[in-house]
Structure to design on (238 residues):
């Protein structure tokens, strides 16, 4: 069953040329699939994820999302997009995951408080709950953002570079969490840079270099030919 379908999706305009940031992306993410979006720097990976969640609108083509999933998608932004100076504790950041269920006026009931506590324990931050996020390391902040996702418990996880600039132990812990979501039948779409990691973890891959190089089973996509084509396009500025 299809969770998200992309038809001829074409987005944006590059600053350096009249060309588009993403051109003619076609395919679909089956429900319960786990797909890596891989490609060189500037390939349009983050742009695609932002288009899927609706922050950006295609100039051509369209994104269709299964109606039962439309309010069930969550984005993990790049760590660099998080303002660490914002005066919020780890607990309150994680609790924001329950916001869609509670809205602005309901207080956190016992069930939600337990879910927040469990999520903090799952990512190993139970002892940092009362610290401001500004005091956390990069890896700890990523763990806190994952705990927020655990509390949110969406059907579709959109992860923008979940392993960038974090330590190896955190990376392995987060991989285990992502695999758990996949085993529960959730749809996972993650932007990544590391082809070896993708080959190890992700069953499906979309290889991008402004255009769609290949989309399918990871072993079929990550061929030397495809990777070279992506590199060549990147070298000539797409
Ligand atoms: N808001 C924007 N306005 C104009 N150009 C943008 C905007 N956002 C991104 N771009 C450009 O679009 C191109 C693709 O950016 P995007 O961040 O999607 O690529 P990416 O594959 O995620 O790259 P990276 O791996 O470096 O994070 C880049 O050339 C970038 O400069």
């Amino acid at each position: 069953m299809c969770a998200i379908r992309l038809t001829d999706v074409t987005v944006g305009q590059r600053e350096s040329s009249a060309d588009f940031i993403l051109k003619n992306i076609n395919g679909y993410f089956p429900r319960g699939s786990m797909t890596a979006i891989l490609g060189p720097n500037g390939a349009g990976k983050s742009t695609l994820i932002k288009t899927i969640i609706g922050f950006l609108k295609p100039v051509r083509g369209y994104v269709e999302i299964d109606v039962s999933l439309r309010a069930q998608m969550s984005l993990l932004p790049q760590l660099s997009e998080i303002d660490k100076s914002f005066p919020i504790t780890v607990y309150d950041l994680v609790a924001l995951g329950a916001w869609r269920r509670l809205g602005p006026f309901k207080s956190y009931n016992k069930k939600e408080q337990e879910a927040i506590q469990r999520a903090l324990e799952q990512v190993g931050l139970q002892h940092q709950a009362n610290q401001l996020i500004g005091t956390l390391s990069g890896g700890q902040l990523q763990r806190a953002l994952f705990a927020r996702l655990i509390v949110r418990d969406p059907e579709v996880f959109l992860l923008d570079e979940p392993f960038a600039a974090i330590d190896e132990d955190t990376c392995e812990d987060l991989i285990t969490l992502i695999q758990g979501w996949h085993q529960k039948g959730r749809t996972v779409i993650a932007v990544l840079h590391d082809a070896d990691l993708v080959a190890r973890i992700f069953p499906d891959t979309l290889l991008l270099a402004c255009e769609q190089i290949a989309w399918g089973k990871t072993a079929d996509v990550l061929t030397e030919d495809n990777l070279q084509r992506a590199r060549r396009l990147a070298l000539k500025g797409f």
